[in-house]
Structure formats: C-alpha cells, structure tokens
Amino acid sequence: MSGKVVLITGGARGQGRSHAVRMAEEGADIIVTDVCEQLPFVDYDMSTREDLAETVALVEKSGRTCLSYEADARDVSRMREVVNEAVAQLGRLDTVIINHGISTRHDVHSEDADEIWDLIIDTNLSAVFKTVRATVPHMLENGGSIIVTASAAGLVPLFGNTAYAAAKHGVIGLVRTLAAELGPKWIRVNAVCPTAVATPLFLNDAHIKAFCGTDPDKTIEDMKWPAQTLNLLPVPWIEADAVSEAMLYLASDAAKYVTGVALPVDAGMTAQPPGITPFIGQRLWELSQ
Ligand SMILES: NC(=O)c1ccc[n+]([C@@H]2O[C@H](COP(=O)([O-])OP(=O)(O)OC[C@H]3O[C@@H](n4cnc5c(N)ncnc54)[C@H](O)[C@@H]3O)[C@@H](O)[C@H]2O)c1
To answer: Ligand 1 centroid to 105 CA: how many Å?
Structure first.
C-alpha cells in the first residue's frame, strides 16, 4: 500500500480503526471519517471524537499521515467537502473502505419499526451510495478500489435485525452493480461479509439479551456458547483484524482482477447446513440451564 491513500468511513473505532492501522502499517496514508455522535434508536453507545483522535494517534505510530473528519456519511455535501479537502492535501485517492454502520435490535412488530427502518436504510445502504458519489470522481483518472463492509447478514437472513439484514443485502446488490458501472475505469468494487465481530456493535447488552434472554446478570461470557452456533468454526465471533486482512487483499494489487465479489470472512456462517440458527442456539442454552 506504499504511496497510496486510503479513506475509511466509520473509522473512530472497531473495524474501521483496525483497517486504518493495518493499511498504515503497509505504508498507506489515511483519511478517516466518522459521525462521532449517538444516533437515535441505536441500542449501544456509539463512538466519540476522542475515539477518532485515538485512531489518528495509532495510525501516526506507523509514521503515516492520518487526516480525520467528523462527517455523517448520510450527508453527501459534507462528505464531498471533506473528501475534496483531504485529497487536495494528500494528492490522491486509491482505496475507499465504506465501513460505517449501525445496528439496533428490532423486528416487524417493534413500536418504532418505521423510524428504525428509515435510519438503518439511510445509514447502512443509502450512505454507502453517497460515499461512492463523493469519492469516485477522485479515482476516475487512475482507477482504484472501493470496498464496502456488508455482512454475512447480506448473504443470509438475520434474526431480529430486519432493516439491517435488508440494508446489507442491498449493499451487495449495489456493489455488484457498481462493479459493472465502474469496471471500464479500472475501479474495482467489492464487499466483505463478516460474521459477528468483537466490537461494540455486537458485544453489547442488546445482543446479550438476544442470545441469553432477559436475565440482567448475563454477560458477554454467557453469549459465547449460543453465539458460536452462528459459525462452523468453533468461535463465537471474530476479531476486527481478521477483517482487515481481507480489506488489505482487496485493496492491494494482489486482487487486481477481483471485482464484484462479496467475500465472506465469516467462520463459515454462510456455509451453515440448514437448521442451526441463533434461535436454536438460544433455546439450547436455555435448556442447558
Ligand atoms: N460487529 C459485527 O458483529 C459486524 C458484523 C458484520 C458486519 N459489521 C459491519 O461492520 C461495520 C463496522 O462496524 P463495527 O463492528 O466496527 O462497529 P462500531 O460501532 O465499532 O463502528 C462503526 C462506526 O461507524 C460509525 N458510524 C455509524 N453511522 C455513521 C454515519 N452515518 N456516518 C459516519 N460514521 C458512522 C460509528 O460512529 C462507529 O464509529 C459496519 O458496517 C457493520 O454493520 C459488523
């Protein structure tokens, strides 16, 4: 990645921070954006501007430049402004990792389902398209790589996160369509589809409740066994740096002929034989008590 510039949305913490640090270790200069505020209905604490500053400090430890911006990916004018400013400073843009995203437990019966639907589709799907619109003009001349964080829930249904799964399925459709549209310009467009990842989006009270029931004494430790039924490999969730390795591959010239793919990094979640679902995991856990 030496000499390249990588932009990452949602880079204040979690997977976005891990991608920023990994790309910098490989020689890239970094632009990170994040909304850094609590969005309504999100059922866990979102990141802060202090988190964003911590990402910058970690990238700078590798001796690379890191420009950071508070920017809501849903706001295409703001995204254009920060992208134009950052690219003017760093001189180029090679890779765009559209990683930002939110989750909140809900289903079709939830009281606020209409508002949650709009929020999640705006954030996890429409803002992906808007980020592409803000960044792609800078890659038309030299080509580039756009990588979107979808989810295993973009390939298979998800229990209790209806709009999230719908948005992530939409993201994969968008990626495939953009790969066709932008291929003639040597802009590759791919998706990465992780299983559960050890970040605050997944390791939170709402998911403890989803996997372990309503007992308030249950902890993340109690989630391990039922969450493991998501995956074929014997892990309940994966680390963010495992996803960063896939990002690195898709960003690099090693993947120069790879476009339009949805790459699972999912411990086998999307290769599950029928019948083993989180729902069954939860029930088995209850029965074992
Ligand atoms: N954690 C998981 O289990 C998991 C699994 C599969 C896919 N994903 C996806 O991975 C991506 C990264 O999530 P994470 O696990 O690192 O969670 P995270 O909550 O740690 O990080 C997500 C970041 O996105 C930012 N963000 C949210 N909405 C934004 C917006 N409108 N504009 C700009 N920034 C915004 C948040 O502030 C946060 O810093 C998301 O797209 C998520 O849907 C997560």
So the answer is: 14
